[in-house]
Amino acid sequence: MSLYGSNQGLNTIGPRSNSRPDLSNYRGEVFVGGNGFPGEYHDGGGYGYSSTFTRSSMHGGGHGGQKTQMSMGGGGGRGGVVSAQSLQQRSVFLTNQCQEYLQNAKMILRSGGPPAESERLMGMALESMDQLKMCGMELQQLRVPNDVFRSLEQLQHMQASIQQQFGGGMGTRRKRGSVGSADGGRLFSDAMAWIAQQKRMIETAPFGDDSATIEKQISSHQKTHSSLQRSSEVDRARDDLNMRNDKYNLYTLEQEWDSLQKMSHSRLSQLRELQNIIEDVSRAIMWVNEREEEELVFDWGDKNIDNYIPKKQESYSRLMRDLEEKEKDLNKLKVKADGLLTSNHPAADKIEAYMDTLQTQWSWLLQITKCIHIHLKENAAYSQFFKEANETYTKLHKQHETICSKFPCDKNTPLESLAEMLKNLEKEKERIMENKRQVHSLVNKSKSIVRLKPRNPEDKSTSPVIVQALCDFKQDQKGILKGNEGILKDNSQRSKWLVTGPGGLDMLIPSVCLLIPPPNPLSIGLANKNEQYYEAIMGIWHQLYINIKSLISWQYCVKDINYINSLTLSMLSKMRPEEYRSIIKRLETHYSEFQRTSQGSELFGDDDKRNIQGHFDKAQNHYDTLIIQLPTYTGEVRQEVVQEVTEELRQDVRPDVRPDVRQDIRYDIRQDVKYDVRPEVKPEVKIPKPDTTKEVKYTEVIVTKAAPPTSKLSVALLSSLHDLRYRLQQAETDLTSHLHVPLGENSLHECSLHIQKLQLVHQDLDVMYDEYLRLRESILKQLEGIPPDSEQAKFLRAELEFINQKLGGLQGLYASYLQRLTALKGLLQSLLQAEDVIKVHEARLTEKETTSLDLNEIEHYRSTLKFSLLQTTIMVRESQSQYTEVIREKDNLLAKIKLLEQEKNRNQRIEDELNRIKASLEAELRNKQRLQDEKNSIVKELTCIKTQYELRDSQIKQLNTDRDRGDQERQSLKTQIEKLMLELRSVEERYKSRLMSSEKDVSELSIRRDTLEREIKRLQQRPDALSRQTQTDEKIPTIDPSKLVFDGVRRKVTAHQLCDCNIISKHTLEMLLKGKKTVEEVAVDIQVNLKGTGVVSGMTSSSHGKMPFTEAKNKKLLSPDSALLLLEAQAATGYMVDPTFNERMPVDTACSRGIVDTEDRDALLTAEAASTGFKDPFSGKVLSVGQACKQGRVSKDTAIRLLQAQESVGGIIDPVLGVFLPKDVALDRNLIDEDLYRALNKKPACYIDPASGEKISYSELRKQCTVEPVSGMLLLRGPDKALTFKGFRGEVTVDELIKSELLNETDLQQLNAGKLTGKEIEDKLKNYLYGTTCIAGIYDEANDRIMPFYQAMKEGLLMRGTTLELLEAQAASGFVVDPVNNIFLTVEEAAKRALIGKEFKNKLMSAERAVTGYIDPHTGNTISLFQAIEKEIIEKGHGIRLLEAQIAAGGIIDPKENHRIDVAVAYKRGYFDEEMNEILTYEGDDTKGFFDPNTKENLTYLQLKERCITDQKTGLILLPLKDKNKAQKTETTRTNVLRKRRVVIVDPDTGLEMSVREAYHRELIDYDTFLDLSEQECEWEEITIKGSDGSARLVIVDRKTGTQYDIQDCVERGIIEKLSLEEYRKGTLTLTQFADLITSKTSGTEMNITASNVDDMVTCSSPTQLAPSSPTVRKRFNSISITVSPPEMFDDHSPVGAIFDTETLEKITIPEAHRRNIVDTITAQRLLEAQACTGGIINPATGQRLSLKDSVHQGIIDESMASKLKPAQKALIGFEDVKTKRKMSAAEAVKETWLPYEAGQRFLEFQYLTGGLVEPGTGRRITIEEAIHRGWLDGQAAQKLQNTKNHPKNITCPKTKLKISYKDAMDSCMVEESNGMKMLQASSVSSKGISSPYNVSNPGSKSGSRAGSRTGSRSGSRRGSVDYSSSFSYSYTTTSSSFSNSSLS
Known about the structure:
Layout: E1 30-31, E2 67-68, H1 84-111, H2 115-141, H3 148-175, H4 185-204, H5 211-227, H6 232-244, H7 247-296, H8 305-342, H9 348-406, H10 415-446, E3 465-469, E4 473-475, E5 478-480, E6 485-490, E7 496-500, E8 506-510, E9 514-515, H11 521-565, H12 569-573, H13 577-597, H14 606-652, H15 659-670, H16 715-736, H17 747-783, H18 791-848, H19 855-1019, H20 1023-1026, E10 1045-1047, E11 1052-1054, H21 1055-1060, H22 1066-1074, H23 1079-1085, H24 1087-1091, E12 1096-1101, E13 1105-1107, H25 1109-1114, H26 1120-1132, E14 1136-1138, E15 1143-1145, H27 1147-1153, H28 1161-1172, E16 1174-1175, E17 1182-1183, H29 1185-1190, H30 1196-1209, E18 1212-1214, E19 1219-1221, H31 1223-1228, H32 1234-1241, E20 1247-1248, E21 1255-1256, H33 1258-1263, E22 1266-1267, E23 1274-1277, E24 1284-1286, E25 1291-1293, H34 1294-1299, H35 1305-1313, H36 1318-1324, H37 1326-1329, E26 1335-1340, E27 1345-1347, H38 1349-1354, H39 1360-1373, E28 1376-1378, E29 1383-1385, H40 1387-1392, H41 1398-1412, E30 1414-1415, E31 1422-1423, H42 1425-1430, H43 1436-1448, E32 1452-1454, E33 1459-1461, H44 1463-1469, H45 1474-1481, E34 1490-1492, E35 1497-1499, ...
Parallel strand pairs: 12-23, 26-37, 45-56
Antiparallel strand pairs: 1-2, 3-6, 3-9, 4-5, 6-7, 7-8, 10-11, 12-13, 14-15, 16-17, 18-19, 20-21, 22-23, 24-25, 26-27, 28-29, 30-31, 32-33, 34-35, 36-37, 38-41, 39-40, 41-42, 42-43, 44-58, 45-46, 47-48, 49-50, 51-52, 53-54, 55-56, 57-58
């Protein structure tokens, strides 16, 4: 019969418009997880149908469209106790028994035996048939094929025929006068036939398919039932039988009549039950259909999307609430239907069909809700995007209008207005830049927006529309799976769309199931439009900015030009030189600013620029003219003033003035002397009468101010100060006098005098500078007692500053003038030389006028003159050329200055462009990061899939193996069955023959019995009593069975029970009953079954003797987990054993005696129940461990472990009988199921070998035990020494590995628990213990062979020095390697095997001390290689080479402990320091101590290793020697070109050469120079890398820094041009030039700092301070420090630690988020509860987990919140039991009602999601299985915790404002890069377009502003990413904000 029934009428209730096709089309198979095809459908009940109405998969995906056959079987309806096999066996037994009874009755009838015996046998046969019928019904209920009913029918026919014979016999006897039944007669037969006919009519009556039909059937049957209350046929037969006194047939008739009445009544009840269940199911189906109809016709297009989204979200929430309520009703309906099916309702097929239809519709509705959820999410994002995009466009438009209308400017705009306009323009830029993030965000969002327009049938698209399935859907054998894509062909119907699905098949699919996925051209276009608009506005802003800046600079230029043109000599003479120099300097500055800002300005064309340049040149010329004329004008004015002053002084001299007054007067004059005399000022000066012998001359006199008060200062100091000032002014006058040198007749001499005077002035300046320093020191000392704000102090400080500036200026003037005068002197000398030559020749000419007139002489003289003229001409030309060269140099300098100005302008433009490019690059980097994160997730998924595939593949192989084994077993079974069939036939033959003989004997005995009966009747007076006597009634002496009792496991067992379970045979039982055997005798034979063969009792060792396992655990001889497993094995086999006294006892007794720990009591009681039985809480029955495992009371692994111990001891314990049974018997008795049976056959390793730590089975463990001779106890041999591991030259203990931080406490616990074996640790730490990855030998390519280094040297393949270096590296790394045989040897062993020569042995022994240690000659202690280098026991260069090889081969070796250690541990032990680390990590030529024989390069050992190959057979690293005769391939994966550039610095003191780094360490260069030279120093390498697909790419690498550049990538990104690449390939550009071209355009602003430990870390306020210091100057940066949180502080199971404010881009605490009103109160409390109950409140700043008290103290939470969180904290630390003072877990507190159920369930969910339930006191996380094992949870509570999809949604998402569970919150968190902290995103406005229900603005805040938000919180942040793998690395970037894209995505 079909699962859905055979009546097609059921289909009338299902189909409706807009629904799926007829459900009957899909009833042959189940399409799991699809559109309404039940996926979660079976619960393994006692019948073939099951359905679970649940929404657990509401937001999950389907099952991939997987097809699964609906299971028709179940676990047995009666508690699962009776198996199908036992029912079949019982049915066979009952059939045979019934046949036997009927055959015996038939034989008695034939032989004329007593009717009472025959009647008794017939009654027993009827009883057997009733039992057989029950077996058949049970087998039918279990859906097991059987022929029970056919056999029953045959037996009934046989019984009916015997009845007829029996009736005939009775009639004969009645005729003889006996009392008994006669033949029923015709009336009886008619009545029986009528009853049978009515029964058949009732049995074959149909059941209706709907309620109306059933109602008619009820009415019809009621009439039938009424008619059956009386029957004339039965009445006549009853009267007739009464008359005959035929009690037997009368009894039979009454039974049949009652049976008919019951059947009729049952039929009526069944009809009513069917009607009720169909009506209930129909109503439920109609309810589901109505909800489905509403959702199918809904339009998810873009029309009125802003209106329908909120309404639909509310409707969706209401629907989900209704579904939750309906789910409860449907589950009740399911229970009701299950009851009818369990009671074998005859219309079970119809009930199943209705329930199937309901389940199908329900599942389909759940699938629709998933689709609705996705539509709501995507459409809300669509609505929000377009709303934001339009708002952004409007905002940009307003800003565009503002910027165009608010900033008009031209050349007439005043300067003040321009300045104000520029200020406002910069503010406007900030407002414009606020849109930048929004614009970029919209561009990113636009790519993920779905398409809604095409959902409208009116929208016609020219291109195919792709749709995506949101759930699985199937139609007419055509299906589409979730995530599959198709092509939309017709969407004219709103509810159904015609789609071309996978495979090109067309199908009608409900539109709600389909989504039109991104990209959306509208959203992308709008986002790009906004981005272009934004860029255009920024372009307008830039243009306005350039225009205004150029106008401002132009205004300043014009102002300066006008002012300079208005200057006169009189005005200049009143100014100090610095004043009028500043005027021209200011003009030049403003003009250069104008030239820069006018580039690109729209207000200044080329004519304007030339015009302003002309005015600038005129102003400069005017200024130069005034400056040239100024000295002459000043001299004239000065002379006039001096004369006037002298005249006035002579008139005002009074001779009566005292000398001291004269001095004071002279002081008053000198203090204000200046050289720039102002003629209009007439000083009033009184001086003493001058000496008549001397003429007093005062040149530069002007009195401008009075002397300051000198009451507290020394008059001498003031005098000296003013005298110094006067001398400075005089020196300046002297210097300026050399500005213009008059060229007279003796100009050369005058020039020399000027130079001498300048030198004298310079000497005077030096003297004055020394005097200034002395005077300054004296004045500052005296100023210490004067207030700094006093007039005296201000005056003196001003004077000192003036003198200091004046001195500096005069020094500069001296150098300039001296240079000019020296050049002038040289020119004059040349001119004088030329003049002298001319004069000489002129004199000669005059002399020759009086000489002879000889023509030859004249001709000779003439030639001499020509020659002189030529020489003079040459000298003049040389002078002219020198002058021309000077002029040219001047012009060149001017041109260069202009070029520099232009370059400066161009750089400014480039800088602006770079800023724009930088912004775009930042966005690109974020995209790259997001893509990288996606790539990583995909790789992770692929790895997971690969792992699953490998696991599945191994399972398939195992299944194939099992299948083959099963085939073999089946074949052997088949053979055995054939043998058994043959034996059965022979037995049947023998049985038949014996039966025939027995029948003859019975016949004879019957005759004899009848004869005897007649004889006895005749002899006895009481025939009734005597008639029942036979001659066989003899008394056989037997023993009372209740006394036959044996001692089993923890209980007594009877002999009958032992016989029933086949432990003793029936023969043995009979002998026991007859007393032929005693209990003690039989007990010896079955001792294994009664007591077993003995469990492992304890442990013994030579040092401790016998001891229980708990004592061995306490003595560290046994791990705690291993001890618990062995104790559980004892409890599971019956008793706990005390090996000291050989006592057995229960667990409680062992606990009280201290043999086991109290903390192990619960686990041992569970194990003990494996022998005593588990009590079923529902039925009260005793369950075996296998049955308890089936019910989920015990985990499968635990059950297998306990059963294995029982089986190893003697067999599976039956807890009811208390005996050990073989596995097969236990399987037959349902003590274990097939799964456990197969698992035990595999003999899994469930226990731990204490010796090796490896897994082992219990039987193998028993084999390793020793047997105590006296007691026979099995004892494990304990270890006599601690576990050690092989090191380089000795053993290494576990404690040493922990001290060296190679193992942690967790590893130790796992080792003790047996989860880690010694071999696993040794394999894990192989490289640390004795492994080495040094270069093992040579691979000779020419001869294709591997050879040791020494052999290669002897054959001439390696040089001697190279061989020694490589062998020393091996010896220093641990061993000398034989690469041929893969053997590692000491130096001594290698010398014996001739792997090394004698000439190398001593040197290699010395190198080997790097492993064994050096001896300190002073202390005799063993020291490391580094310490030997420090103490100069070994030469430093040689030692560094050995140390580098040691580190490259695996790490630093601790010679004392014989193993490698990490760098951090080496620091602590003094085996390494930072300076040595820097030396080794610096890959300069100075550290390259190894030679590459192929390329003849010096390399570091690590670089040489990188060029090696790995032997595939041995895994050794081999140095390949290239075949020199073989042409190398052109395409190679190694170096093609290598170019080096090295910078060498010479120490000026010693003349030694050194590297850049050494110079920096010796403080010969500063850090900036170090950086500059380091960038210039490089080692470029060109590499061609070939991919796996054959593709090749060209890469250049700086081998000093590791920096790589992909050439093709640089070309594509525009960093270099293709032309440059072609020039490099042609050879026009060298590799270094080409690399410089790339690096000059890719240098970034990012700075990295690395350090070896945390102490070197620094925190800086700005990136410019991040200059790493050298080892010698690092101490100078005392003010710089770094505080960092170690990374990996949190893992995937950590709770939500902080809130990330998406609007301010801040990480904040949860209470702070609550104060900002972006997280509601309930959510904040729930998140904090999750922290408190899983480890403590998290401080987001440091990552610390704090108690509530500390959290309040640090201000993270307040007191009120702390009081609310106290129960959550108790869930972590434990609830104290008042009586026992024991700490209870949260689960126990809930069970004991110490904690409310809701809060407790919430805390348990938090703990489970973050790693497991917390054990109080220890804080250890335990699994669900362990919690069940401890009794914290029952199966239902555990399932509730594990079903995370059904966790309550008790928090509100701070971002979407939707209700979510804590699991959802954890999944949606961002993860901080530095420490893995989870941050939940939050905002004031929902990202789903839903306004926050708790976002209430503060009074007075602006509309839309967020309450509590802090101003300025959006400032730029600086993030650092930390890598703690081997060293600490910090990367500081200068971006305005930085956070992880992977978290946001």
